[in-house]
Amino acid sequence: MRKIHIFDTTLRDGEQSPGVNLNTREKVEIAHQLEKLGVDRMEAGFPAASPGDLAAVNAVARAVKNASVVGLSRSREADIDAVREALKGAADPCLHVFLATSPIHRKYKLKMEKHQVLEAAQSAIRYAKKYFSKIEFSLEDAGRTEADFRAEMVAMAIREGAYVVNIPDTVGYLNPEEYGAIFRHLKETVPGIEKVQLSAHCHDDLGMATANTLAAILNGADQIEGTINGIGERAGNTAIEEIAMALETRSDYFGAKTGLVLSEIARTSRLVSKLTGMNVPGNKAIVGANAFAHESGIHQDGMLKEKTTYEIMSPETVGFKESKLVLGKHSGRHAFREQLLELGYKLEEEQLNEAFAKFKDLADKKKEITDEDLLALLEERLPDAPEQYGLESLSFSFATEAAPKASVTVSVAGEGNRSAEAGGNGTVDSIYNAIDQAVGEEVTLVDYSIQAVTLGKDALGEVHVTMRQGETEVRGRGVSTDVLEASARAYIDALNRLAAERRLPGGRKGAEKVW
Ligand code: KIV
Ligand code: ZN
Question: Which residue among 244, 259, 276 closes a domain?
């Protein structure tokens, strides 16, 4: 079996999803989970984008011990220096430097001729070689680059000492046959190709990212790049869990495997979904809520007789367990701690106290508490700094014949409490209008969604909102047994993310648009 290295870019390309703004603590939390999942490399961010991004990459670099931590850089010395700074303290640092090579990018974006692109990339790798023993070079938009120039660029990167050469289908334009043929051509024609690892990096604009990545593996790719849940720019990146399970389930066909701990897939997916605020669609392969559900009578009958009639992999393999009723009002701290350990959470004393208080609060409102409820409580936002706003109290009135009305009191850091009352087009709208008035912020609600965490009338409701202020878009999440309270909490969470963005010079993702 060939080993395929997994390069996770959830924290970089994944974070480029519109509205996703992970703070440093959230990045570190996801990085720890990626370590448990067993990724070989993880790209933590783009340090030159902003001081905030540099600091977040540095925090990940210092926290991760069992995977190589990668920082992204354009082919510029200042960017490379920013990655050097960001990766200080990393156990196994790696620089990822890129330059676009396609005719469209050369002409319109870079305004450079082929020889200038080659020289710029060459001098960037040469400069980087003084400081990094591991360098990955990416030919941005390699998929739409002329075959001979692509091969010339790859040969140059090998001569200059790159460790990995990445061939991205940046705009998700290719089909599997074409993408696979690129890898075959490079393997067959480029001198010294055996000295580097060739990497596949696909985007999903035409829904072919997974198929294209598998085609690259069949044609010699040593590494694949992707994100958890397939999040990323536009339609997203290759979903790592899909590649892992395709290689596992069809090892007879691919003859290749990853080093991933497959049973950590479900937990990683859930954590990424919660902290990014990006819901996983029910029908998403491997990690969707319906991925292992059997609805039709014929299928259920087959499953009862023999699981393999309709199941090509088991939910347990990727870490899904049957939802259990675990705790209730009378459960004590010890049982609570044990249950968290079972779910993979080892909390410090102070965190445990905080979580236990939240659990008791929930147990007063909800009779039976399941694993999903506990996870929903634990995966609440982890602020980097004290929050700007807090929901102190909320009340509303609703009647079928009367206009709804809401009153809120919001705590504002350094100022105390502010209250406001407002009406609106429905109760949620009234609550949001009242919060707007209390905080005095001008924002636009771009998206609102609500779902139940578990079954039953007393289920926890989980609300996700996307909010915009000027150029900045953020997502917020709120959880409560009351959906209106969850709505208010999601809104306040998004407002806090906006406030955190404003505190950082250039924002967390950077004011400079680099692509
Ligand atoms: O899609 C892409 O080309 C990228 C590069 C920066 C590798 O993300
Ligand atoms: Zn990309």
Answer: 276
Q: Is residue 300 part of a domain?
A: no
pLDDT digits (tens, 9 = 90+) for 308-362: 888 899 999 999 876 565 788 888 888 888 888 888 788 888 888 888 988 898 8
pLDDT in tens, 199-211: 999 999 999 999 9
Q: Give the rounded percent of residues in the chain with a pLDDT score beyond 90.
A: 71
Which backbone phi and psi does 146 adopt, to 5 degrees?
A: -60, 140
Residues 6+ away with beta carbon under 8 Å from 106: 100, 112, 113, 114, 117
Is any ligand 1 atom within 6 A of the Cβ of residue 101?
Answer: no
Residue closest to 229 by CA, chosen among 282, 185, 177: 282
What are phi and psi for residue 141, nearest 5 degrees? Answer: 60, 35
Clarify whether residues 422 and 331 are in a common domain.
Answer: no
Retrieve residue 458's tokens.
Answer: 């007393």
Residues 68 and 155 in one domain: yes
127 near 77, Cβ under 8 Å? Answer: yes
Residues with CB under 5 A from ligand 2 (ion): 13
Q: Please tell me the distance from the alpha carbon of residue 396 to that of residue 425, in angstroms, as a whole number.
A: 13
438 and 396, same structural domain? Answer: yes
The protein residue whose alpha carbon is closest to atom 1 in ligand 1 is 170
Tokens representing 173 are 């334009």
Establish whether residue 98 lines the binding site of ligand 1, counting it when its CB lies within 6 angstroms of any ligand atom.
yes
Among protein residues, the one with the nearest Cα to ligand 1's atom 5 is: 140
- How far is 477 from 272, CA to CA, in rounded Å? 13
Atom 8 (ligand 1) nearest CA: 13
Is residue 13 within 6 Å of ligand 1 at its C-beta?
yes
Q: Within this chain, do residues 361 and 394 fall inside the same structural domain, yes or no?
A: no
What's the domain count of the chain?
3
Query: Domain residues for 339?
Result: 316-378
Question: Whole-angstrom Cα distance, residue 107 to residue 491?
Answer: 43
Judgement on whether residues 126 and 256 belong to the same structural domain of the protein: yes
> According to DSSP H, which parts of 64-113 are helical?
77-86, 103-104
Distance in Å, CA 501 to ligand 1 centroid:
24
